[in-house]
């Protein structure tokens, strides 16, 4: 069995089939590798040369055009991949997934294509969503071109408000250079399917502009492919609603408008910046470097292309442009424990008094969170010893774009032993001490989706435990403070409201425990009050394990709306959550259910092409089947002043564990050669000790140079 560890339940996938270990050839993981820059260029060139597609460059030109938006790997079908990985079958053909915006036709739409074989593509075919759903053009993600046109339309539309903005903020849109205004856009873009109306939060363009709203929010309708027909429909300023730009401008001109006068931002030590300010009262000096990670005898992991090996672990990995990290063929001790483990979606839904705040329901796959993998800083984002890897994305661009140092791999001392025991003789000495240092291998990337930064980790432990974890940091999504807004968050600065919001992160876990045929059961703790069998008249209250097989998909869907320990009920949302409505759901695996969300859900959550509820609607059997566990983790964030300038990572991390549960005969970390065992040679005096270890006596010069010593007396 392999345990899926969540903080509120014990969920087991029970192995009912067996498969032996198999050795991987050095290049087998490459069937899951991201497309190379050459492959990305080859796909784009092939599609651009197809006259029937009529593709135009992504940059420039009108919105009403046919353009290539995204190219990324289309993973092979599982059956073909396993035939290649385990039974020496043919290598699966390598294909790309291409997303095409068909805007230059009577009925615009979005079409996905499978393009191959790579590296020299010669054909394409349409990729259909489950049920054959078409994707409307209004559901498309935003592009750089649309943002440029949106900015122009906004600047032109609010020109009559320039006197108001200059008086209240000292910044403007018209002919500005260093004192400019900018905006952040909110999604979903409307109130029903087919709309494309976006609330824009106007901000001063200074460092950390997310924390500098000026009190103006503008609703701009940009559904029409012709920007000349875009219109401002409503405005909100300092707590009041206005039906037009003219109405707001006239209110200001008449002197009946309550202006929100903002102080001049300081030239240095702006509250939204990282510049040091103040001193720790009675604290120690912080000018010196802190503790560092080192590898005194070199790396203990092996990185070959997209194959990562560490201790008993091996896996393939990739960084999807659409949704981020994805692991394949995850093995421990040569046996596959998971075929796929991947990030699916990150959602943040907000409450607030202003229109933008109450409308915000971010679904970050729609913002291509995988392609927001900007450079990791050595020594800050990852230790200096880490191995760094580049990523290449072809997203809303006319060629592949290199993102240097987008991923990192490093071994991390956990700071706590993996296990240890001091065996006292209770006379001032001991029988033995034994301990195994805590280490984990970390695969990391980040997604900076505008204001928020997500740090995505997969951690591999030597005892067969895998942890998936995400930290939330970056700037809070904040709105302009009004007294009415206090019930929706905290006043974190003079004119700033930190809006309450909930983060939900969704993962796909395709577990193959001793083969693909698995079943699912949950274990819960119950209590019994029984007669004491060895003392007449006495009673014993004790826990016992309640095991419940879940035989069909509906039984294996544990909804968010049902409170669990340390969990609060989740409300019904408008629009409804299209994906992660469950703490955990287990379904039969199907090739036409590869993901629980899509890049189109953000801009059409009312009628998305992928709806997770459809995965379990047929209520299929999940006994002795190829199963997928869909896991949702999350936390409530009530912003506070300490979130300025950025939300800190401590206390803002969630995740889950995959743990072996009676799968091995003993803790598999006994194979590690890193333990230390100390035994006294002359008990109970303990003046002479035998110290046994299977690594060199001293790690090396990067830590204390003296060899390991131990006393053990007290």
Automatic annotation (TrEMBL):
The enzyme's E.C. designation: 1.4.3.-
| UniProt-annotated stretches for the region Disordered | 555-582
The segment(s) forming the Copper amine oxidase catalytic domain are 292-561, 581-669
The alphabetized UniProt keywords are:
Copper, Metal-binding, Oxidoreductase, Signal, TPQ
* Residues found modified as 2',4',5'-topaquinone: 452
InterPro entries linked: Cu_Am_Ox_Cu-bd, Cu_Am_ox_TPQ-bd, Cu_amine_oxidase, Cu_amine_oxidase_C, Cu_amine_oxidase_C_sf, Cu_amine_oxidase_N-reg, Cu_amine_oxidase_N2, Cu_amine_oxidase_N3
Copper amine oxidase N3-terminal domain: residues covered: 140-240
Question: Which stretches are tagged as biased composition: Pro residues?
Answer: 566-579
Give the record's GO biological process terms: amine metabolic process; response to antibiotic
**If you read the UniProt record, what top EC class would you report for this enzyme, in one word?**
oxidoreductase
The Copper amine oxidase N2-terminal domain, residue ranges: 39-123
rRNA-binding in keyword set: no
Tell me the cofactors it needs: Cu cation
Which GO molecular function entries does the Swiss-Prot or TrEMBL record give? copper ion binding; diamine oxidase activity; primary methylamine oxidase activity; quinone binding
Give the positions the UniProt entry annotates as the active site: 364 (proton acceptor), 452 (schiff-base intermediate with substrate)
Position of the signal peptide = 1-19
Identify one Gene Ontology CC term for this UniProt entry.
Answer: plasma membrane
The cofactor binding remark recorded in the entry reads: Contains 1 topaquinone per subunit.
State the PANTHER family in the record. AMILORIDE-SENSITIVE AMINE OXIDASE [COPPER-CONTAINING], COPPER AMINE OXIDASE
Q: Which protein family is it in?
A: Belongs to the copper/topaquinone oxidase family.
Name this protein carries in UniProt:
Amine oxidase
